[in-house]
Amino acid sequence: MTTPRRIARAAFESVDKLFDRAFTPAWNPLYHLGTLGWFFYWIVIVSGIYLYIFFDTGINQAYESLEYITNVQWYAGGVMRSLHRYASDALIIVMMLHLVREFVMDRYRGARWFSWFTGVPLLWLVFACGISGYWMVWDVLAQYIAIATTEWLDSLGIFGQSIARNFLNSETLSGRFFTLMVFIHIAVPLFMLLVMWIHIQRQRNAKVNPPRGLAAGTLGMLLLLSFIEPAVSQPPANLDIVPAVIDFDWFYLLAYPLLDRLPGLTMWAVAAAGTLLLLLLPLLPPLRHEPAAVVDLDNCNGCGRCVEDCPFSAVSLQPRTDGAAFSEEAIVSNNLCLSCGICVGACPTSTPFRRTSELVPGIDLPDQGIRALREKTLSQAEKLTGMARIIVYVCEHGPELEKPENDQVGVIKLPCIAQLPPAFIDFIISRRHAEGVFLAGCAEGDCYYRLGQQWVDQRLAGERDPYLRKRVPRERIAKCWAGITGNRRLQRELTAFHDQLKVLPPLQQRTSSPVDEASAEQSESRG
Ligand code: HEM
Ligand code: SF4
Ligand code: SF4
Question: Please, which pLDDT band fits residue 527 given cuts at 50, 70 and 90?
Answer without folding.
Answer: very low
